[in-house]
Every structure is written in C-alpha cells, then in structure tokens.
Amino acid sequence: MSGQQETVNLDTLAPEQLAQVKKQLDEELEHLTQSFSQLHGAQNKFRDCLRTVQHRKNASADSSNAVLVPLTNSLYVRGELTNTERVLVDVGTGFLVEKDLASAEKFYDNKVSELTNNLKDLETIVQRKQMNARTIEEVLRQKIMASQSQGGQGQGAQAQAA
Question: Could you tell me the residue ranges of all domains in the chain?
Fold first, then answer.
C-alpha cells in the first residue's frame, strides 16, 4: 500500500454498501481492541519484571535469597539465589540473556516505555475508527429514514391516483 488514505463520500454509497463498510470497520475495531488488550497485558508483565529487578537491586546484602522457582504455571519449588547481581532476561521467543541488574532494569524500562508509546498510538487509531463507525451509522440511519419516508409518500400518491 502507498500509505495514502482514500476518502469516500458516504452520501454516494447505497445503504447496503454502508452496512458492508460498517461491518468491516467493526471487525477492524474488534481486532484492534484485542491487540490493545494484549499489548496492555505485555506491558503489565514487563512492569512486574521491572519491579522485581528494582526490588532485587535495592535489597540489602543480608536480605534473604530465598525464592520460589516455577516448574509449571501452577507448581513452584523453594530455591535460593546463588548470584544476586545477575539475572536471566527473556528477550523474546524464549531466548534468555544473562544481564546485570542495572542492564536488566534498563531493558525492562525501555520495553515499558516502548509499549506505552505503542498503546497511545493504538488508542488514537481505535478512537478514530470508532468515530468513523459512528459517522457511518448516522449516515446509514438517515438514508434508511429517508427511503422509508419516500416509500410512504409514494404509496400515498398512488392511493390518491386510484
């Protein structure tokens, strides 16, 4: 695609075409809303990771090194950290990278900021599409009311001619 948006005069479209455009817009909105929700979930996970790294970074040297290690989503076992200055960071698609606490904090902070910007952009797009959907609904409603009133007048004229 060239990146240029094509504008269509809604008044020139038939009600059936308007309904089809509305249906397509509703599907896009549903997909974008799901994407927004998934991005928000990812942002929350990165925030949790950031808080954990910050907590470990701010912990005193004599604090407990006891942790719960996940074996499955619902099964944890007790463990103890042997190195409290380095952590494994999931950088995506299951790849783990060992980082010091400061680097891990910076990584997660960057991820949270990046997702915040993406969420703002996506929110703007969703709002614009919602506004377009409302506009299409209004034009469609006006066209249906106009066709009904014309149909009613046409029937009245036929009854007078008979």
Answer: 17-58+86-150
Q: Per residue in 9-66, pLDDT tens?
A: 777 778 888 888 889 999 999 999 999 999 999 999 999 999 999 998 888 766 788 8
Distances (CA, A) of 47 to 23, 76, 96, 98: 36, 21, 18, 19
**pLDDT over 60 at 8, yes or no:** yes
Sequence-distant (≥ 6) Cβ neighbours of residue 88 within 8 angstroms: 96, 97, 98, 99
CA gap 160, 82 in Å, rounded:
96
3-class SS of residue 43: helix
CATH of span 17-58+86-150? 1.10.287.370
